[in-house]
Amino acid sequence: MAFIGKLFNALRRSRDRVSNAFQQLVKEKVSPQSLEQLEETLLASDLGLSTVEDILDIVKKHSHENFLNEVADYMQQSLDQEKQLEIQTPSVMLVVGVNGTGKTTTAAKLANYYVDQGKKVLLVAADTYRAAAIAQLQQWSKRLNVRMVCNENSQDPSSVLFDGLQSAKSEDIDLVIVDTAGRLHTYTNLMNELEKMARVVSNRFPEFNLISMMTIDANLGQNSLHQAREFAKSVKLDGAVLTKMDGTARGGIVFALKNELYIPVLFVGIGEELNDLEEFDHQEYIRSLLGLEEAEE
User: Fold this and answer.
1) Which residues partner with 180 through β-bridges?
2) In what order do the strands lie in the sheet with 91-96?
3) Which residues of 48-72 are buried (b: 16+ CB within 10 A; e: fewer)?
4) What is the largest distance, in Å, between two alpha-carbon atoms of the chain?
């Protein structure tokens, strides 16, 4: 699979640091000094304090065995989820997140993904504050041959969403994907606006299953965790897309999202093209992170 090689390369920064730290631990044997160095490395890779503490406990407990496999087993169990998100028909997916996390591109990638799954998709450009976002999504929609609903004369995202869902009902759309305005979690009025959009779906279009997907910049580390925590106060987050997974990304934030906020990473963005979005495979992710296997071409 090409994705394995891409993910392997995207995790290069964390993989090199983490695998080197564990290999050094094997050579030097477990000691207070080597454990402290491992702790610093894991924290720097954004795994989160609780996850790091658990890993250190495993290393101590299995210090005379192959503790790397034990660590891998723990990581896999901590990220286990029953199955990938199932899209009921009809559904509406709000793509939410902070400015600069790649919401508009991710909305297009998700549309491409679900069209490939055989879904009839409609895009809604509800980022009414940024004309460039509407124009960008319009270009993507043409490439995808997917219809897009927008209203360049309206500053009310909920109104645009309403129009989109009305169209979706008349056209028997399976999935409506909504590009929302980027907002800082500290902007109370914009967060209230997001809550209003969720109410429009639940109150006016109860036949639609509401899904909220947050875009998370893989390079922002623990700051992304704080952002997700605040967003979760306004809308129920069903999953996250880890974006900007390039060679500098640390990527360990997936553990904190799942273990502290119960938000699973469902997709990983590993490039700018429409096909550069993959289902998150946590087993492959952990093997890549720990350097347990070579990338497959």
Assistant:
1) 126
2) 148-149, 121-126, 175-180, 91-96, 209-217, 239-243, 265-269, 277-279
3) beebbebbbebbeeeeeeebbeebb
4) 68
Among the listed residues 245, 263, 257, the one whose alpha carbon sits nearest the alpha carbon of residue 46: 257
Indicate the CATH number for domain 2-79: 1.20.120
- Cα–Cα distance between 201 and 211 in angstroms, integer? 10
| SS3 track for 110-147 | HHHHHHHCCCCEEEEEECCCCHHHHHHHHHHHHHHCCC
Q: Where are the domains of the chain?
A: 2-79, 91-237
Cα angle value 102/107/112 (rounded, 5°): 125
CATH 3.30.460.80: does it fit domain 91-237?
no
Q: How far is CA 129 from CA 78, 134, 160, 162, 198, in A?
A: 39, 9, 12, 17, 18
- What single-letter amino acid sits at 142? K
Residue type, 229: R
Task: Please give the structure tokens belonging to residue 23.
Answer: 């290999």
Query: In whole angstroms, what is the distance from residue 88 CA to residue 85 CA?
Result: 9
pTM over 0.70: yes
> Per-residue pLDDT tens for 26-67?
777 788 888 888 899 888 888 888 899 999 999 999 877 778
Looking at the chain, the whole-number percentage of residues with pLDDT higher than 90 is 40
Helix axes 32-44, 12-28, angle to 10 degrees: 170
